[in-house]
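Progress against Task 2.4 (sequence-to-structure conversion) is shown through the following example record, which the project officer requested during the mid-term review.
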Amino acid sequence: MSSESGNHVYALIMAGGSGRILWPVSRKKKPKQFVELFDEGCMIARTLKRITACVREENIFIITSERGRTLLADSLPEFRPQNIIAEPSSRNTAPCIALATAHIRKRDPDAVTVVLPADHLVLDEPAFIKLVRAGIEFARSNEGLVTIGVTADRPETSYGYIQADEELPLPASTASLDGCRFFKVKAFAEKPDYATALQFVESHDFFWNSGVFIWHIDAISREFERSMPDLYKDLISIYESLGTKDEEKVIKDVYSWIHPISIDYGIMEKASSVHMLTGEFGWTDLGCWDEVLKVAESRAAVNGEQHDSRLVQLDCENLYIRKPAGKVICTIGVSDLIIVETDDALLICNRGSSHRVGEVADILRREDLEEYL
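Structure tokens generated for the chain above:
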């Protein structure tokens, strides 16, 4: 990538999640993306560091909530405050991306944008960066949208899926990347039940949806205009207000009437031209404690078990325990459990059942126990 072309590459890190899926560690007051899960920095810091391999730091934007803006000051104190976009309220990913698109277009009308979640884990970062760079090159010279798919090796019900259509010759920039493939996209599928997920995997033409998108600013703007014309008009209103005294009022007004909708449903499923780069790069969205457990176990196997004298286990096996420093936890005669403790809450569940944590959050809300969320 030349220096001149690199000037027009931007990244948008979406960091507006509410944090319920990894409760009780992840909370509204400190969602998953601001939590340190593996003693290597919080998730958003790792995401930022990863994407700087192919996007200049001054061209990276983070979109979050007002609460997230405060958390960013603690988690990323050196990040440019002028590159933080705060949504007045959460309206899912399509409005989020529309707002950020207005900001990026104001900065650079020839921008190619990489959109990525703040809270996903990537273990093979060099492979991921090669895919992103290939997507950037394709998006720069084509009118379509690009997404990154992940090889599905099991019938996972907590992920969205992308169905591949015609396989295409690889972009030249991916020639040295083993296992990479390039497709036209046929369809997007929401999180399936187990039987459907099994059919997806056995068909070999469905891939996990990584939530990473790459496009030229003109391409995504055209798709907003074509598929979501009302939101496109709002995007134009916001664009025209940026840098004026009316900016804050216009954005708040827009967010008072737009409806929540995902970018997959609002745009990607209807777009006229979507392409997918696929590969294996150790991806997980850490969507439940069982996903965290898998990563922790694989790291322990590689790096050796870390002994904690404050964890006492008698006749126990297959436990995952996360606790505050300095606290003792003793277990006797139990197995296949996930135990997660914080100062004010305790989660105990069977391995394989942590995807139901969202149900717990719903109950706490109904029981007027919001202070624990």
